[in-house]
Design goal:
Blueprint: E1 6-7, H1 15-36, H2 39-49, H3 55-58, H4 60-101, H5 103-109, H6 112-139, H7 146-172, H8 176-184, H9 189-201, H10 204-222, E2 228-229, H11 254-274, H12 277-283, H13 288-291, H14 294-312, H15 319-339, H16 342-356, H17 359-368, H18 375-384, H19 388-402, H20 405-425
Parallel strand pairs: 1-2
Helix pairs in contact: 1-6, 1-7, 2-7, 2-9, 4-6, 4-10, 4-18, 4-19, 5-6, 5-10, 6-7, 6-18, 7-14, 7-17, 8-9, 11-16, 11-17, 11-18, 11-19, 11-20, 14-16, 15-16, 15-17, 15-20, 19-20
């Protein structure tokens, strides 16, 4: 369908409209964070409610959710070509609402497969939403300050992410250790099933409310004054050219392809620090009551990092420098988690949120720089990289059984941080003019 008059960057429309646009996208990033970081609570909840036998099974929560990005990112780019960015965001919210509603029959049937389906559908909606909103916030202003704008979005995202496990955990994992003990001590199979069914039902009300809010937001975005941007005729780096001369395929941008892998490993380590911290702590002897909100500590660390990014990029440090420092900090904290034990080790994992915080704000604009008319498909490829959040926890789950959770965590994350460091130093310049 046709879209309203387009704008290519902030200077082409009024300052008030620019601020309003950023505020609206900030609301969307809040939604991303709230929905995405519910997984940290859903992993222990579904392991208990669906009577799963291992952490590897429970970590299929992250697999189903993040694999949706891999499957839907490219189709999302074609959808956005038809709908434009604003209508695409509205559609993404509606799809997420459908995914939330699937939790109702899933809880009633206590079906882990149906829960995973609901998570996959939510991931589908988020894939469309992120494919639209990330280039939007990158391109709506100067590319040099994109990391600063994305840092603002990151604060919205991670504050929501820090709140969501606390809110959902208070509802669905209230008295979790006691419930776990009652289920284990049930005198009969029928009593055990009844207790599990009652636990499963706890998730219905919050997800029905979530679906209603998402549908409402979809309508609000659809009829909002959010301006359309034109990435077909203008280069995000600010030149008038649609793409560097002679480039006819997205595969001719090495810095983008290397950036996709960089985003893949970055999301992998982010999910490890945020969603795997609970099972990791359980393996070190902490109770379910203690571990149910650990994800929030990782996300508050990320909020601190994003705040630093807002005030330092690009005023004091460049995006590339921020990424180098983040990668080095990640290596340091991962090593700290490996050589220490107990709560100290868990603290280092939570602090990985600080190391991870400025990675997305730096990687995304660096990877789409200079794509011009290829921005939508380039953004879609980058969103596919979010599948790292599906793959790395599964590798961790298998390694944790083979060696130990602590060693598995270190050997899963260290190579990722080393590659991110390479991209910050050299990879982001591959194929670009000197």
């Amino acid at each position: 369908m046709s879209t309203p008059s387009a704008v290519s960057s902030a200077p082409s429309h009024a300052k008030g409209s620019y601020v309003l646009s950023i505020a609206i996208i900030g609301v969307l990033f809040f939604i991303f964070g709230f929905v995405t970081w519910l997984n940290g609570t859903l992993i222990p909840f579904l392991k208990l409610a669906c009577d799963l036998h291992s952490d590897s099974q429970a970590l299929l929560v992250t697999f189903a959710f993040y694999m949706a990005y891999f499957c839907l990112a490219i189709p999302s780019s074609f959808i956005l070509n038809k709908t434009g960015f604003k209508n695409g965001m509205s559609l993404g919210l509606a799809v997420m609402a459908v995914g939330a509603l699937l939790f109702v029959p899933a809880a009633s049937a206590r079906s882990f497969g149906l829960f995973l389906t609901g998570l996959f559908v939510q991931g589908m909606g988020l894939a469309l939403l992120q494919t639209a909103s990330n280039p939007y916030i990158s391109v709506i202003g100067p590319i040099e300050s994109a990391a600063s704008r994305i840092s603002i979005m990151g604060i919205c995202n991670k504050i929501a992410g820090a709140l969501s496990p606390l809110i959902l955990g208070a509802i669905v994992l209230k008295g979790a250790s006691e419930v776990e003990a009652r289920i284990a001590a049930a005198a009969s199979g029928a009593e055990r099933v009844q207790l599990l069914q009652e636990l499963s039902q706890r998730v219905i009300q919050p997800y029905v409310i979530m679906a209603a809010v998402l549908f409402l937001l979809a309508l609000m975005i659809r009829f909002s004054p959010l301006p359309e941007i034109d990435t077909n005729g203008a280069d995000p780096a600010g030149s008038a050219a649609g793409a560097p001369k002679g480039r006819t395929s997205i595969l001719q941008f090495p810095h983008l392809l290397l950036g996709v892998l960089c985003l893949f490993v970055y999301v992998g380590v982010e999910v490890m620090a945020g969603d795997v911290i609970g099972p990791y702590a359980r393996s070190l002897g902490m109770s379910l009551n203690e571990t149910k909100s650990l994800t929030s500590y990782t996300l508050w660390s990320m909020v601190v990092g994003y705040t630093i990014g807002i005030f330092t990029i690009p005023r004091f440090i460049r995006q590339e420098t921020a990424l180098k420092l983040s990668a080095l900090t990640g290596i340091l904290f991962a090593f700290g988690a490996f050589v220490t034990g107990g709560r100290t080790s868990i603290t280092f994992i939570a602090l990985l949120g600080l190391a991870n915080s400025l990675m997305w704000p730096a990687i995304f604009p660096m990877a789409i720089k200079g794509l011009g008319r290829f921005t939508k498909i380039g953004s879609a490829l980058l969103i596919m990289g979010i599948a790292g959040g599906a793959i790395l926890p599964q590798i961790y789950g298998q390694l944790a059984h083979a060696i130990s959770p602590q060693s598995a965590f270190f050997w899963c994350t260290l190579p990722c941080y080393l590659y991110i460091l390479y991209y910050a130093i050299r990879g982001h310049r591959a194929g670009l003019p000197a």
